[in-house]
Hints:
Blueprint: E1 2-3, E2 10-11, E3 15-17, H1 27-39, E4 44-46, H2 62-74, E5 81-86, E6 88-89, E7 92-93, H3 97-111, E8 116-121, H4 130-142, E9 146-152, H5 156-169, E10 174-178, H6 192-199, E11 203-204, H7 222-225, H8 231-235, H9 240-256, H10 260-268, E12 278-279, H11 287-291, H12 300-313
Parallel strand pairs: 3-4, 3-12, 4-5, 5-8, 8-9, 9-10, 10-11
Antiparallel strand pairs: 1-2, 6-7
Helix pairs in contact: 2-3, 3-4, 9-10, 9-12
Amino acid sequence: MAIIGNSELDVFRLSLGGNPFGWTADEPTSFEILDAFAEAGANFIDTSDSYTASVAGNSGGESETIIGNWLTDRGLHDDVIVATKVGSHPDFKGLKATTIAAAADASLARLQTDCIDLYYAHFDDPDTPLEETLEAFNALVEAGKVRYLGISNYSPDRVREWLRITAENGYAQPIAMQPHYNLVHRKSYEPELAKIATDNNISVFPYFALASGFLTGKYRTRADIEGSPRERITASYFSDAGLTVVDALADIASNHDCEMSTVALAWLLTRPGITAPIASVSRVEQLPALLDAPNLVLSSDELDELERLSTAVGA
């Protein structure tokens, strides 16, 4: 377990991504996954109000709705910490003050709660003054609708501006950050965001931690991803250097008698500022490999090898 930033939120060191819920996992399957997650002693779920609006027949918020139904049905609102995001829902685009206020109320209703534990700005909104956005977020905290705030997909300069504005105005400080970060995609986080996070005690929760399945070894050729729901995203990771990383993961996993995904997540947990990777599953049998990651200790030689091969990817 680990504390998020300057808060009292104590979370398991693996965050369950909620984006499959209502997409590649229907509600009964999602409940099965969530039950197994909670029964393992894990307690941190990540979602967004926009999951999964892009799926045919969906309108956005399906993941929040399933999570809210599960929390209420199982009576776990006080035991599970939920992070969600604002700014990308089809009905609540951007980060104007009125949009944030309305979107937060909609998320609260779907999650069936009166307070969101951790609320992220999903993407930067260059068309709205950051001062307006942060005043609106602070108002939610003061109203008791949100406990803590986080930043997702912001550039280092905009994160620094966020921190300046909150400090100057006495607004609630961000305690969490979500960058795109994994063994074959490092430049979004390293080195600038990593330094900002560690210097300001901001906990980091990398998304695409398994590179949309690429780091599980499931996809060894482009033909393997054809027709998969994640084809567009996963295709971007393919390179000779990336496949060499996958081969190394396979060797290390064999040495530890574990899954490749466990190794990839364990590597992330050794990186500066990382509190818990975000990873998702569509079937309950995929979950144990993720939950094993916080307990896997990689040797210095294994870490050195992964560092060398990962750096060679250059992404």
